[in-house]
Amino acid sequence: MWRYDDSRAALRDVLRLSRAMTFKSAVAGLPLGGGKGVIMLPLGAPTPRARARGNVLRDFGDTVDVLAGHYVTAEDVGTSSKDMGVIAQRTPHVTGLSRRRGGSGDPSPYTALGVQAAIAASCERAFGSPTLRGRTICVSGLGHVGMRLAKGLLRAGATVLATDIDPAKREPLKTAGGRWISTARALSQAADVFAPCAMGGVLTHETIAELQAPVVAGAANNQLADDAVGELLARRGVLWAPDFVANAGGIINIAVELDGDGYDPARARERVHGIADTLRRIYDDAERTGATPLAAAMELARLRLREAA
After folding, report:
1. Which tens digits make up the pLDDT trace of 158-175?
2. pTM for the structure as a whole
3. Does domain 2-25+33-101 have CATH number 3.30.70.100?
4. Does 36 participate in catalysis according to the annotation?
5. Catalytic, out of 24, 36, 151, 169
6. Which fold has domain 109-247+279-299?
7. Looking at the chain, which residues constitute the CATH 3.40.50.10860 domain(s)?
8. How do residues 254-274 score in pLDDT, each as one tens digit?
């Protein structure tokens, strides 16, 4: 659920997101496709009140139900586990319901866990060790995933510099032991790792000139303005963890929920930690073939899609 200028912008976004989700599921080796849904809110319109929001969610549930299980919806930006409960009033094809209702609950902790595993694997490649103790990591965006990531990095011994457009996130960050910086400094901040965790498109032909970190690994979708930016990052000597690999923890968690054996959080955590091994393979393939990590990740995704076909 997000605000868009018009329906064309929403359509472009959902197509980008579904493409990324297809590659995300394939690279992670999941038996899932890449469907994505968007609920468009007009710019400038007031936030829907509870009753209106419920009606919108139920309408979306009706649409999901028409697809008869070919598309299964889950929580994402702008929605919550509680919202999934409302959608479930109209369709059984919903994941991410609360644990009390037999689901896996909020996927954000698993997305954050996977990004932290991706950061560790990227540090191993760039610096020779996966340890995060003593590393300086700049986290841009302190939403459900970004704040959890920041706290996990702090527990691992990293120095965390972070920011968000919402100044209310400052005190929780400082309480956890992080240091607040201005949003304008996020890209140019000297750090070992830059972790973009807000909305996509942050890495452009212009903004990467400001980038000071030798490693980029974060939770945001569609971090590159276009695929050519991946080549530019490589030329600058910046190691970029492809976003659809690094942020796959949420969908991996959902896949565990869909296992025939039922949901098991320990099994979910174990599989999410596998993101590090997937990235190691991608970095090895990229080095062996002289490709960028993006090209190597997409080739791995295509390989697994061919195998599935």
Report:
1. 999 999 999 999 999 999
2. 0.90
3. no
4. yes
5. 36
6. Rossmann fold (3.40.50)
7. 2-25+33-101
8. 999 888 777 899 999 999 999
